[in-house]
């Protein structure tokens, strides 16, 4: 691959991500709380976002990444729950000064849910 997307400045990638993501934020939020939900990032939208910055050669890499992320998320029952369990596991591991591998994410999430009541 001649042009690696990782060589782009972070602020440029951030701007492109914001542009593409902002169109679908509401649908993405619904997808996490009430699957199934229709959400799509089209190749045309990705190409447009990169082309207007003169970076069209990077569009395929971003689109392949976005498609992979979408496929991984849509096959999950509740990705919002899943990520929050892992966030709780990492939080608990830091508090206990242990490796996250010894923490059960589901139990950590339940613990913080009870603690916050």
Description:
This protein has helices at residues 10-22, 25-33, 43-51, 59-74, 79-96, 105-115. α3 runs antiparallel to α4. The protein is elongated and about 50 Å long. The protein has 117 residues and is mainly α.
Radius of gyration: 18 Å
Secondary-structure element series: HHHHHH
Roughly what fraction of the amino acids lie in strands? under 5%
Q: What separation lies between the terminal Cα atoms? A: 51 Å
How do the helices and strands line up, and which of them pair or pack?
Layout: H1 10-22, H2 25-33, H3 43-51, H4 59-74, H5 79-96, H6 105-115
List keywords for this structure.
117 residues, mainly alpha, 2 domains
Could you give a short description of this structure?
With 117 residues, the protein is mostly helical. The chain contains six helices and no strands. It has two domains: 5-74, no CATH class; 79-115, no CATH class.
């Amino acid at each position: 691959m001649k042009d690696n997307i990782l060589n782009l400045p972070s602020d440029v990638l951030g701007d492109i991500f914001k542009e593409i993501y902002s169109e679908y934020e509401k649908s993405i939020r619904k997808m996490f709380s009430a699957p199934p939900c229709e959400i799509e990032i089209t190749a045309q939208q990705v190409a447009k976002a990169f082309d207007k910055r003169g970076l069209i050669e990077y569009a395929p890499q971003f689109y392949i990444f976005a498609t992979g992320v979408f496929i991984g998320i849509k096959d999950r029952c509740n990705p919002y729950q899943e990520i929050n369990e892992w966030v709780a596991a990492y939080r608990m591991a830091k508090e206990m000064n242990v490796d996250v591998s010894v923490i059960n994410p589901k139990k950590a999430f339940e613990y913080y849910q009870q603690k916050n009541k």
